[in-house]
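Q: What does the assembled structure look like for these inputs?
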Amino acid sequence: MRRKSSNSGAEAAATGIWPPAAKPAERFREGGKGDLLFLGAVVLLAAFGLVAVYSASSYNAEVQYGDAMFFFKKQLVGFVLGLAAMAAIAFFDYRKLQKFGLPALILSLVLLALVFVPGVGKSNYGATRWIGFGSFTIQPSEIAKYGFILFTAGYFAKDPARLRTFKGILPVLGAGLSICVLIMLEPNMSVTMCVGAIMVGMLFLGGITKKTLAFLCIPVIFLVPALIIAEPYRLKRLSAFMDPWASPQEEGYQLIQSLYALGNGNFFGTGLFRSRQKYRFLPFSESDFILSVIAEETGFIGVLALFFVIGFIVYRGMKIANACENFYGYMLAAGITLAFAVQSCLNALVVSGCIPPTGLPLPLISAGNTSLVVTMAGMGLVYAVSRHNGKRKFIGYTTK
Amino acid sequence: MIAAIAFLFCIFLGRFFYIQVIWEDELHYLALDQWTREIPVNAGRGQIVDRNGELLAGNRPQFSVYARASAVDDAEGSAHALADALHSSYEEIYRKLTDKSKSEIVIVRRAEKELVETIEKTEMKGVYYARNDARVYPHGALASQVIGFTAYDRSGTTGIEGYYNAYLAGENGEILYDTDLVGVDLKGATAAYLPATDGLNVKLTLDYRIQTVAEEVMGRALEEHDALAARAVVLDPNDFSVLAMVNLPSYDLNEIPRDDMDALNALSRNCLVSDVYEPGSTFKIVTAAADIEEYLRGNAKAFSPQHIFSSARTRTVDGTTIRCWSDHKNGKHSNETLAEALNNSCNPCFVDIALSLGKETFYDYLAAFRFGRATGVDFSGESIGMLLPESTLRDCDFARIGFGQSIAVTPLQLACAAASAVNGGYYYTPRLVSELYSDDGSVREKVRSSLVGRTVSEKASAMLSEMLEGVVRDGSGKHAYIEGYRVAGKTGTAQKYENGVIAQGKYVSSFVGYFPANAPRYLALVIVDEPQGTYYGSTVAAPCAKEIFEGIIDVMNIPPVEGSV
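A:
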């Protein structure tokens, strides 16, 4: 049932129902309470992230910075900023953003390009992914994801007929690929994959024809192996992921430490703040691998509960998109929710060793202010969409 | 879209379940290793004492001082304190305290207990102490080949230290500290303490007093005869417990010549167990025992004690002429009975016995007396001797075995065979250890004497013993005679072989004796290897046995037999 409704755009496009001849269904209601459960779940998750960041980082922070609260304080700043951004956007008429699609894309590309400007770009762990001055740094790829969503939603909302022709979707493909190329050059394979997935997902949600979809997917299948072969370190990581114990001190180290954390967690966990692996055994324990620490401290039960909340947010986000009575709001809410879902899934797949380790945060939870603020702002936007939705599910796209 | 995401959720949640609930055990086991650092807790090594509790091998408490650079908080202060206490270089210690490339580094191995106690009071962080006792041997060279020594890691290498190492060593424990990745102790974490189990003490059958007497006697003999080696084994014939084992020259166990491996190998070898020699005339005890037993059983081929052997000096076997050591002139070695043949140690008579009994019967006796097989003593490296196989044995070789040639035995084999021939015909497994006991004195394991089999009957044994008493009273063994103690025995003089040919002027003088003849309590085999000048067993070895017996009589305060003067 739900599946069908989420496909509604595609089906409508395929059968030529969308856009309706006239646009009687295109509606924008006065702002209501909106989906408070969705909002509550997002804030809850971010707040839990604060606790998790403190637990995972306190020891390392004490050793490295002499302040156990170092990462926690940073994250708290991000949390407060994120709340502020959420609040501001929640009561904002999101349709006004529609004009800012192209500027957002251009800003994203500029920020991504700045990474490669000496003195502005900052390197860490062999990749240049940050820009900033002094202790203030941002990660442009986190912003670019949302820049791309804003652009795509605005572009298609302006004329939904663009979804039906290859020429129509070409600008979106161009925008997506240029972002991907810039991120890949950093390099950051996983965020590239993430943006690629969001791009294909949004086109799908927008309702491109099945033929076009297939046409888009085929090159991807060939591109991934080509990219892996192009950069030898990816191949190493790939083999390390197959058998991490073959190189326990090098490529396999990260995954082994993550597995140790998971194993130590068992079913019920070691208890909050009682991770053993956070004592500097597990690298990036407060950021990309925070899920390992959560899994260790709260056990499999905790992982289930966490992904229940994440799943709930994704479900409500998609529901909000579906209930939206204007196409821009639909594309925006669906795109943002999709980005959140894709990133959460990829992170969980990495941490559990299903795919090779890559640098990708768990949204709302991992330490990292750019990601936290931008994700919370995005979630605020989804909430804003929900405020203008009707009480019942919108039936305009599924005229059955 | 929801379906695709739900599918992904299922994939990784399933994976999480597998890792966290099913794979968990193995991962946890692997992870444990990286979470802790160990400081060893060495078990105390058991002592070795003689049968009366005299300490032969013990421990002096010492400690190793370790540091874990990552846990040291005041490297300069600690280095100063350690350098002062240990009287060593500040720079060296400071370098070790700050060397974070190793998780643990030894500051000093084996520091005296008092030193470590003063260091411990300063409560330095990152500095640890582990017991690492030094092995000490209060009596230095005494019975050094029997006791053996330990390697640098305190595991027994040779002798009793080696053979009983599993019991002596105990089980090491450890203290496990929870640390972070680089080895820094975690705050508030309690160290897990796995206690060490101290080793068991070993009580030898050796008697320190008899060992001391025997070593003094053999030491004098070694010097007096300028011999290559002087050896002795003293047994209790009633259960074959070894009372003394002397191998000279010897070395001090507290100053082991570890730099010279060849010398150490030679000096630390217990030749009484590991080396073979041609026994010569002492072996006639076995031949005589076989003859008497067969005679008592009614074997017509055996000679009666009243039988008069041919007085000829030679016997010709297989075209080979075998001569007596004596020239048989002027009535020497004429008209001998078995007792007189023993007195005179007349070779042809024993050729007659061997040939008359035949290979099959005689080899049965050799087997019963355990020639060509191990005695089973609780000591590593026992040799089984060399016995020509019965099936291919030539008669001329067989004839020589009758008087102790063409056969090689270990001294322990010969001593045990002689003991069995005169103790009523009982053969036991010889032993060096009587029991293993813990520090609280409770006996954990007893090594009991075990009867392996019979060699001859009690009657045959008594008859033989009477004859051997005569050897000491009237015959070649008279230098071992002690008034009132009924010493019995048999001399032996064997020529040494080198590369298969007789080495001119090289002899092994030996004597196997015991007392009192009617109920033997102490049996000694004395061997002087390559004595210079006089070389007969009767003049070189027999006096040594006499002195050992006199020492035993003195130490054990044994009164003379009633009726004697």
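Strands of chain A lie at 121-124, 127-133, 136-138.
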